[in-house]
Write a structure and sequence with these properties.
globular, 5 helices, alpha+beta, Sufe protein. Chain: A, four-stranded antiparallel β-sheet, binds zinc ion, about 45% helix
């Protein structure tokens, strides 16, 4: 067993036994709750934004060690990133876990410890679950988050919110 694998295992163990970012956040602007039936992992992710930046994250996992560690790594890496950078980070994680090559942006970060998961196809979903939850949370509010602080005049308009799906269906009958 080489030293790098030992180091990575220690990082994953540390995050899974004492996960970061489990504390409640002040205001929940977006959230996503995901279940991975293949393993039984559950992740509840809450996000708070400030001016287009992900300011705070809470990630609560009832999951295996890989999924819990991945959520903890996410909760440490993402806060204070602009939403666009957070999306780039999600893409970097996905490609790393699929290809087992660590992109430059993830070199020397705790996230690099997840690269080895690529060798175990049934654990890939465990590792990706928190990141998929973040992706869903970001896409659910991307418009508002990216506009906040930029187009302040839009705040006064209540007509910018899209109609609910039910309403659209009713109208199309
Ligand atoms: Zn799992």
């Amino acid at each position: 067993m080489d030293k790098l694998d030992d180091l990575y295992r220690d990082i994953v163990l540390d995050h899974s036994t004492s996960p970061r970012g489990t504390q409640a956040i002040e205001r929940v602007d977006a959230s996503a709750s995901l279940f991975n039936p293949a393993c039984g992992d559950r992740v509840q992710l809450s996000v708070q934004f400030e001016n287009g930046t992900v300011s705070h994250i809470q990630c609560v996992s009832k999951a295996c060690s890989i999924c819990t560690a991945s959520g903890s790594i996410l909760a440490e890496a993402i806060p204070q990133l602009p939403t666009s950078k957070a999306r780039d980070h999600i893409e970097a994680i996905k490609s790393m876990i699929r290809e087992r090559t660590v992109p430059a942006v993830l070199q020397d970060t705790d996230a690099a410890s997840l690269a080895g998961v690529a060798e175990f196809p049934n654990r890939v979903r465990c590792a990706l679950l928190p990141w998929t939850a973040l992706e869903q949370a970001l896409s659910s509010v991307s418009f508002r988050a990216e506009q906040s602080g930029v187009e302040k005049s839009l705040k006064d308009s209540h007509e910018i919110s899209p109609p609910s799906l039910n309403k659209v269906r009713e109208e199309s009958k």
